[in-house]
Amino acid sequence: MEHQPHPALYQPKHRFRLRTTLIAAGVLVAVVPLAGLIVLITTGWAPLHTLDVNIVQALNLYAAHRPGQVQFWKIVSIVGGPTVLRIAAFLAVVLLWVRRRSAAVLVAVGRHAIWHTFAKLNGRMVSALIPHHTRLTCDDRSIECPVEA
Fold first, then answer.
1. What is the pTM of this model?
2. In whole angstroms, what separates CA 111 from the centre of its chain?
3. Residue with more model confidence, 110 or 33
4. Cα angle vertex 101, ends 96, 104, to 5°?
5. Cα(24)–Cα(114) distance, rounded to whole angstroms?
6. Can you say whether the dihedral through the CA atoms of 132, 134, 135, 139 is positive or negative?
7. Smallest Cα–Cα separation from 93: which of 114, 109, 111?
8. Number of helical H runs and strand E runs in the chain
9. How crowded is residue 149: how many other Cβ atoms within 10 Å of its Cβ?
10. In angstroms, what is the C-alpha Rg of the chain?
């Protein structure tokens, strides 16, 4: 005789609880390491700072000898940047509006607005948690920055 799953598991209330539990667990898996990293950054943990400086120096040395790759990644960051994506979203909304799909327009605009707000708030919260003096720049004496390629 085959084992049949309990029918109560397929009821909407139980599916909602399962999804909510999985989402909460996923958030914890993401937030706990990030919080630990923020604590290490703000306390100025020396091994992390050393690792950061070494990575920055290695990437700067790599980039100094490959100006073509630097230019390529600048173009990629412009094309994948927020301005281009906002223009694409605006054009998609206009296209949906012209085709008289007002419900789709509202859904698209609503989802974009929610995602944009979520991303901005999270970015600002993390930025507020990390003091400005802990961020590495080329002005930091422990980093050798090449001349702009």
1. 0.53
2. 17
3. 33
4. 80
5. 19
6. positive
7. 109
8. 5, 0
9. 14
10. 23
- Whether residue 31 contacts residue 125, with contact meaning beta carbons closer than 8 Å, is answered with no
Query: What are the C-alpha distances in Å from 89 to residues 10, 79, 81, 96?
Result: 37, 14, 13, 11
What's the token pair of residue 70?
Answer: 């630097």
Distance CA 112, CA 101 (A): 17
* Residue owning tokens 């702009």: 148
Q: How many residues does the chain have?
A: 149
Query: At residue 49, does pLDDT exceed 70?
Result: yes
The mean of the pLDDT values for the chain is 80
Burial class (CB in 10 A: 0-12, 13-18, 19+), 141: exposed
Whether residue 103 is predicted with pLDDT greater than 70 in this model: the reply is yes
Task: Specify the residue for token string 């703000």.
Answer: 42
